[in-house]
Amino acid sequence: MKQLAQEKRMAVKEVAEIFGVTKEAIIKHIRDLYPEILTPKKKTYLSEAQVTEIKKRMKQTTEVVSAKTGLERASIVEQAVIILREDIETLKEQVNKKENQIKRLIHTGKLYTSTEIAKELNMKSAQELNKYLQEEGIQYKVNDTWVLTAKYSEMGYESIKQIERDNGKIIYDRKWTGTGRDFILDILE
């Protein structure tokens, strides 16, 4: 984070020289991407991230001309490294997401209690999970029983078993299906 605070900034003229284009070409891209930084009669400076974005856009519009000097080539290589690092971070995120999906393989026929899912999400209790699902409009409580809203009730997210107690009172035991568990994990991760 400290590196971001000390980020190198470049004048529009410097960027234009590095890319081998006119200052006006760079200003055109700034107008499209960052109009708020253009101030009349003031020198405009660009961060590395902004230069990278302009370069990407210029590459798409084929305005980049060959670099003329070793210094210019070094600057372009530096920008390429930045772009590659961003791509690597994106790929890492995708790999992590896939790893999480693999960890969450649905066990055929297995049902999950709200407590099990809450613990998986590092919540304190099933009550915390149920309250969150209520706040999100996914479920509501009727006669001390949690019920999915109409939008979610026919999606196969839960299995409800009716149990009659010795005193004649009927209770409903709700458990989440593997699909329901995945749905909850997806909205909370």
What this model shows, in words?
- The structure is a single chain.
- With 189 residues, the protein is α+β, with helices and mostly antiparallel strands.
- It has 2 domains: 2-95, Multidrug-efflux Transporter Regulator, Chain: A, Domain 2, CATH 1.10.1660; 114-188, no CATH class.
- It is built from 9 helices and 6 strands; from the N terminus they run αβααβααααββαββα.
- The protein has helices spanning 2-5, 12-19, 23-33, 48-60, 70-103, 114-120, 126-135, 150-153, 178-188; strands spanning 9-11, 45-47, 139-142, 145-148, 158-164, 170-176.
- Strands 1-2 form a two-stranded antiparallel ribbon. Strands 3-4 form a two-stranded antiparallel sheet.
- The radius of gyration is 28 Å and the shape is elongated.
- The two termini are 24 Å apart.
- Residues 1-5 have low confidence and may be disordered.
Give the key terms.
Multidrug-efflux Transporter Regulator, Chain: A, Domain 2, alpha+beta, elongated, 189 residues, disordered N terminus
CATH domain class name of the largest domain: Mainly Alpha
Please report the number of helical segments.
Answer: 9
The amount of beta strand, in percent, is: 5-15%
What CATH calls the topology of the largest domain is Multidrug-efflux Transporter Regulator, Chain: A, Domain 2
Rg, please? 28 Å
Helix-strand pattern, N to C?
Answer: HEHHEHHHHEEHEEH
The percent range for helix content is: 40-55%
